[in-house]
Amino acid sequence: MSQTHVNSICPFCGVGCGMCLVVQDGTINAVKPISAHPISQGKLCAKGWNTPFGINKHNRITQPLMKKNGLFETVTWQKALSYIAKNLNTFISESGSSTVGIISSARATNEDNYAAQKFARAVLKTNNVDHCARICHSPSVVGLKQTVGSGAMTNSIDDVSKADVILVIGADSTENHAIIGGHIMRAKLRGAKLIVIDPRQTRLAQIADLHLQLKIGSNIALLNGLLNIIFQHNWQNGDFLARRCEGVDALKEHVANYSLEKVVKLTGVEGQKLVEAAKLYSQANAAFLAYGMGITQFISGTNNVIAVSNLALVCGQIGREGTGINPLRGQNNVQGACDMGSLPNVYPDYQSVADEKVRAKFSCAWRTNVPKAPGLTSLGMSNQARNGNFRGLIIFGEDPVVTDPDRNQVELGMRAMDMLVVVELFMTETAKMADVILPAASFAEKQGTFTNCERRVQLIHKAIEPPGEAKVDWQILCALAKAMGAGNLMNWQSSEQVFDEMAQLTNSFSGMNYAHLAERNGLQWPCNAEHPMGTRWLHTNVFPIGKGKLIAVDQVSSDEQPNAEYPFWFTTTRLHYHYGCGSMTRQSPLLERETPNGMLFIHPQDAVDLGLKNHQAVTVSSRRGYLETRIVLSDQLVPGLLSMPYHFKEAPSNLLTNDAMDPTTEMPELKVCAVRLVPLPDN
Ligand code: SF4
């Protein structure tokens, strides 16, 4: 049989590697890397190579399902949409628009996300729209907006190859973002110095020139300590500070409180290593700084991001090739979902819902009034439901029962709603709790765009038909808007029309259209009259907020500390072979073969102290829940610290995690809590 080849983008992480889908008999039976792709350059990681398994047909949801007497039965689209529309209209008329909302998807296209936030604002009349950036990089969006005016990666992935120092904080880009991990390894081979700041001796840390193995959660102490050393040695970039920043004196005075002796005590890192790292980073010609959720997933997440930004600004390591503040965004389109305004406080392109002019602009464009009240975050909707104040939620392509903190409370919130609708490819743990499940089209079954972590908007093309009656998210939303009586408010005929509407209402995307994206292998925003070919480096001459803001922040303790009852620190991690809740990667027998189970990593010394053998079964308990799993000895950890990947529904680490929140962004403290470990009898 003949094969066709369709170019697309990997549906897993935010690197956005180019892949060619090989289609035979209406099925994707292989993928091939694209050698001309500007980032992946003919490479894919293990997840990318296994993409066909993640969208296979045999266990996809292919028809609308409604729950009756606790069991799902197939129904027509018309019946499902009428039921959802009737309920949403009832909830709004009885209890107000604040009791309904949408969780959109960082796995869906920009067009799907634009439609989701428009549906929330123009049809439901609420700003209750959010997505999983809440639990990954919401502190980056807010923190960097304050300091440099834009919450995205300032530079391009290829800049790794131009840097002479690479500083990675709280991320292991050999596990996730593996193609960036490869860029870093190649940079190191050509002589770049690598500094890793991480409480675990990750694979990246093992090849680093300097590994600062800090105590978990002591990021601000360490970063302020580095700044103090830099000021003491006069290693700051005085010219850059004078021209481009404000708040230098106050910051210098503040970080003087972080003496070397104090920082060594707070972080557990040797003083000599701190001085070496400060010198290497500040004196580099070009230093590329990247960070991940080891910075953001704390109650101090926003301040952690600000501390990172302070370091880059003081050293002038921004606005040039090979430099920058570069948050490594997780999901394939989490950057795009934020850009499209699937957030409760901003419209597309981060236009504030609090700004009257912005509201007037969208009201005029959409020919309907839009709501003024700020919306709820995803966790806020769940909390309100537990309090009896939230009635109807539609979730697109996310599995918060597995991925959100304190699973028992998340489940209580979902159960408390009058109607839960899940739009999904597979029967996830969250889908099992739904009243209605709608079958969604995968990335290979639709056209649209994804935006990777370096702000590159890239086209994906439809390669195969969706299975059964599955539909594209934006088409589902158009049909639902009609069923709710919204007329032609959402009446697009193609994803291109959705994109064009979005581009007309934004500045950063105003120079983009599908033809331009196709010509250029994608374009990095802002792409507009000023930057018609897109923008590789942000902030080259000026910050969008004028001068860069240096803001003094202080170290705070984690919400929970180990004690006699819960004596271990516990942290969550990711593995190379799986992605998110595992609903796609765990369809692959090859990836399952590599890491088939959830597991708890423990330092060998702790195992000896507790009399545990490798792979022994244990129970792990926190103040919120417990689970059973098996241990794996790992000298990546320090004694007293346990870690667990969160991909596995059979051993869901989020039964244990803490939902204490960063007050600015409601980011939960997923990276640290306290647990107890009890051996189970061997069998
Ligand atoms: Fe896909 Fe990310 Fe792997 Fe690239 S690095 S192949 S985008 S999962």
Task: Explain how this protein is built.
InterPro entries: Asp_de-COase-like_dom_sf, Formate_Dh-H_N, Formate_DH_asu, MoPterin_dinucl-bd_dom, Mopterin_OxRdtase, Mopterin_OxRdtase_4Fe-4S_dom, Mopterin_OxRdtase_prok_CS, MopterinOxRdtase_cofactor_BS. This protein is α/β, with parallel strands linked by helices and 683 residues long. The chain has four domains: 4-54, ADC-like domains (N-terminal domain of TfIIb, Single Sheet); 65-131 and 332-454 and 467-492, 3-Layer(aba) Sandwich (Rossmann fold), CATH 3.40.50; 138-328, Dimethylsulfoxide Reductase, domain 2; 568-679, Beta Barrel (Barwin-like endoglucanases), CATH 2.40.40.20. It has a seven-stranded mixed beta sheet. Helix 4 (110-124) runs parallel beside helix 21 and helix 8 (219-232) packs parallel to helix 14 (301-314). It is globular, with a radius of gyration of 24 Å.
Secondary structure elements and their pairing?
Layout: E1 4-9, E2 18-24, E3 27-33, H1 46-49, H2 51-54, E4 65-68, E5 71-74, H3 77-95, E6 100-103, H4 110-124, E7 129-130, H5 138-147, E8 165-169, H6 178-189, E9 193-197, H7 203-206, E10 210-212, H8 219-232, H9 238-244, E11 245-246, H10 248-255, H11 260-267, H12 271-283, E12 287-291, H13 293-296, H14 301-314, E13 325-327, H15 334-339, E14 346-347, E15 351-352, H16 356-366, H17 378-386, E16 392-396, H18 400-403, H19 407-416, E17 419-424, H20 429-432, E18 436-439, E19 448-451, E20 456-460, H21 473-483, H22 495-504, H23 514-519, E21 523-524, E22 548-549, E23 568-573, H24 589-594, E24 600-602, H25 604-610, E25 617-621, E26 626-633, E27 641-645, E28 673-679
Parallel strand pairs: 6-7, 6-16, 8-9, 8-12, 9-10, 11-22, 12-13, 16-17, 17-18, 23-27, 24-26
Antiparallel strand pairs: 1-2, 2-3, 4-5, 4-18, 14-15, 19-20, 20-21, 23-28, 25-26, 25-28
Helix pairs in contact: 3-21, 4-21, 4-22, 5-14, 8-11, 8-12, 8-14, 17-19
The structure holds iron/sulfur cluster.
